[in-house]
Amino acid sequence: MNISRKRVLTVIGAPAAALAVWAVAVPLAGATLTMRAGDDTQTVGPASIVAASLLAAVVSWVLLTLLERWVVRPGQILAIVTVPVLAASLSGPLGDAVGTTAKLVLVALHVAVVAVIAVGLVLDAGQKCGPTRTPGWRRHRDAGACG
């Protein structure tokens, strides 16, 4: 299995970027990250930040790997998929965060993770001349198909 160094660094970099935002906002600036969870509230800590950002990076890598196997421009499709996924992920902080500061910091966490994933994975995505393993597809030999 060919594992790209950029992709591994992306999976490591996404939680690192999120932790950097958290470190500036919470310990240094004194922000409190709390979310509503039913009738209760929960504090968002570094463990949940690392877990969520690591999960997002790994799922993105798996999706890119599948796209590279089946479509012509996997990076482009991953970039397109990223926009609605980011919008959906922002519904949590915008709807359930307690206070404006918590909302802003949580949105910054989400944007930081998506930025690392987009730069690391989308730019590393391979482009080929067509699907190679789908039954019934002929491999494109036209140089323009890879353009």
TrEMBL record:
It comes from the Bacteria. Keywords: Membrane, Transmembrane, Transmembrane helix. The keyword Transmembrane applies. The chain crosses the membrane at residues 47-67, 74-92, 104-123. PROSITE patterns: TAT. This is Uncharacterized protein. It comes from Actinoallomurus bryophytorum. The lineage of its organism: Bacteria, Bacillati, Actinomycetota, Actinomycetes, Streptosporangiales.
